[in-house]
Amino acid sequence: MKRLVIFIMILSTLPIIAQENWGPAEYIDSENWWDSGCGGEQGYGFLLPSISSNDSLLFMEFWCFDTSGIGFMRYEDGDWADFTLLSAEIQALLPSSPFFTDHNDSVLYFSSSNYDEGYGQTDIWATRLENGIWSTPWNLGSVINSEGYEHSPSITDDGNRLFFVTGGQIVFSDIIDGEFSEPQVLPEWINSQLDEYDPRISGDGERLYFTRGDFDPRVPVLLMVSRRSGESWGEPLPLNSNINFGGGCEFMPDFSCAPSFSMDGTKMYFSHFEFPQPWCEPNFRIAVSYLETAVEDGELIAPESFSISVYPNPFNSRTVIHVQGNLSRIEDISIYDITGRKVRSWPINNEIVWDGNNADGIPVASGVYLIKVGNDKTIILEKTTLLK
């Protein structure tokens, strides 16, 4: 109980965040794919994109038959062309999870599973692009890499903070005078008891995107976002249905992960893992989506037209949600758990009683829940705590 109380106190200091409204996804299926059997609508394909600051270079991991690695394409004459593998020296490290940054320095970070060349099972490495030539790759060292698995690096545009996964948790390391600090684990509302991976930080360091799934492959996998305020991270929310597609086969739902953003943050490249019926054979594709609703100045301003209150809070058996204001402006009243999964929703009403059950009438577990009220442009989130 003491740990729960402390957790609730921490949550009360976190910022309210808004769900981002991304438009319909468009697939990048160029006629210039390296091998037509790997791109397009058949084969394993390409995944984990990372875009350069001027949208002219698209890096990606590829899986094709008995080979894999990292390559990139150039945007020329309205199409992505000339898929090019990185140097043999880099491919020998069995690279994956590319993240390219060229704001202060042109550096490609990647994960390596060549056990003979690193500290552990997988390590994070980097290579520099200079005058069209890739430098000899270097290992980020023992502060970052351990005997276990380090992977999925991403770095802020200023080059001062590196995010990655180690020991199954999302962490970050500050870079001070060229040296990495001891990694710090992100809070437990980001690193839940589920499976979080593929963290991608926005260039300004204010939004962290990551994938949240379950160790049961039949459970939907969601691409989430958490906003930062100072050194506090907000409750993560799933991206909308244009990104988190749903569907797929019974044993392996479709999902999206590893977003990469244009310099102005309005265009998102990401991986879409398809497992179409009836054979559930995987097909990895890269998609792009445009931000349709932006939040001005990176902040959410609560609308004056509606507000909510909850009492009692915490509660044991029932709580009443009061919605005040112009109900015509409200499109959604829902409850989410801290993993970002929707628990229940209601038709629009001034007063709603929640009895602690989900949409199927099954009692939910004790814990912190988020009540979401809003429309496609603005939302209000209110925390409530169920104690049994």
Biggest sheet descriptor: 5 strands, antiparallel
Distance separating the two termini: 11 Å
How many DSSP helices? 2
Q: Ranges with pLDDT <50 over ≥5 residues?
A: 1-18, 39-43, 294-304
Helix fraction bin:
under 10%
Report the strand count. Answer: 33
Task: Please supply descriptive tags for the structure shown above.
single chain, 388 residues, mainly beta, five-stranded antiparallel beta sheet, 4% helix
Characterization of this structure:
The chain is mainly β and 388 residues long. The longest helix is centred in the first third of the chain and has 10 residues, at 2-11. The strands form 8 sheets. Strands 1, 2, 24, 25 and 26 form a 5-stranded antiparallel β-sheet that branches. Strands 7, 8, 9, 10 and 11 form a 5-stranded antiparallel β-sheet that branches. Strands 12, 13, 14, 15 and 16 form a 5-stranded antiparallel β-sheet that branches. It has helices at residues 2-11, 88-91, and strands at 21-22, 26-27, 45-51, 57-64, 67-76, 79-85, 95-101, 107-112, 123-130, 133-134, 138-139, 150-155, 161-166, 169-176, 179-180, 184-185, 195-201, 207-213, 222-229, 232-233, 237-238, 248-249, 252-253, 255-261, 267-274, 283-293, 306-311, 319-325, 332-337, 342-346, 351-354, 367-374, 379-386.
